[in-house]
Design goal:
about 230 residues, alpha/beta, 8 helices, 9 strands, about 20% strand, globular, binds SN-glycerol-3-phosphate, binds calcium ion
Length: about 230
């Protein structure tokens, strides 16, 4: 059965990557929540998509150049605050699995430490568009499941070479690239497929029929009956 991954929590219904968004995804019954991580100037892991804060908060500046205390003064939509990864783990542990996207250098080591400290290795998968970040975390914790995100046909045709070099546990293409042939080939390599940005019911149903293992969506209610 295809798993439903709430993108940035349940970002179609709540401000992305905030605690309210993760709580909403739990209430809806998602199988997993996706979230993005970056490092602050004082090396704290925060859950935030952009490198710069002005699109998603009332502040200005780069996450990597601000301390956690500075970031905590900012408001996201609905007056939500930027959460730390630890705060998200506290909300999600034993309730829902986490899919952590490494967005910046330095995150593999810091994220790995938090995973070990909270003893949630079996509740977590890791993604990134950067294969070197996946290699780094895989070297630290070889049992962690990692998947490479990609959005171009060029990477798609190269992916079979990367499967062993990272090594990858699953493949994570943009939904528009996925074909039945690709899914079958991934499965023949023993790799599952997570397709991202599945925000229309028709597209999701088509991917589910192709045998895609996990779909990432801003609108999980499209696929989960209340
Ligand atoms: O789950 C994949 C997806 O999150 C990648 O794109 O920009 O939303 O982080 P983005
Ligand atoms: Ca993401």
């Amino acid at each position: 059965m295809t798993k439903i991954v709430g993108h940035k929590g349940a970002s179609g219904y709540a401000p992305e990557n905030t605690l309210i968004s993760f709580r909403t995804a739990i209430t809806i019954g998602c199988n997993r929540v996706e979230l993005d991580v970056r490092l602050t100037k004082d090396k704290q892991v925060v859950v935030f998509h952009d490198d710069e804060v002005s699109k998603l908060t009332n502040g200005v500046g780069f996450v990597s150049e601000m301390t956690l205390a500075e970031l905590k003064k900012l408001d996201c939509e609905q007056d939500e605050k930027i959460p730390t990864l630890q705060e998200v783990i506290d909300v999600c542990k034993d309730k829902i699995d986490l899919q952590i996207e490494l967005k910046a250098d330095g995150t593999p080591e810091a994220v790995n430490e938090l995973i070990l400290k909270n003893d949630i290795q079996d509740q977590v998968v890791i993604t990134s568009f950067q294969d070197y970040l996946l290699k780094e975390i895989k070297q630290l914790s070889p049992n962690l499941k990692v998947g490479l995100l990609f959005k171009t046909n060029e990477v798609m045709s190269e992916i079979w070479n990367l499967v062993d070099s990272v090594p990858l546990d699953f493949l994570a293409p943009f939904s528009g690239l996925v074909t039945k042939e690709f899914v079958d080939k991934a499965h023949s390599f023993g790799k599952s497929v997570y397709a991202y940005r599945v925000n229309e019911k028709e597209l999701g149903d088509k991917l589910i029929k192709m045998g895609v293992d996990d779909i990432g969506t801003d609108f999980p209610k499209l696929f989960i009956k209340e």
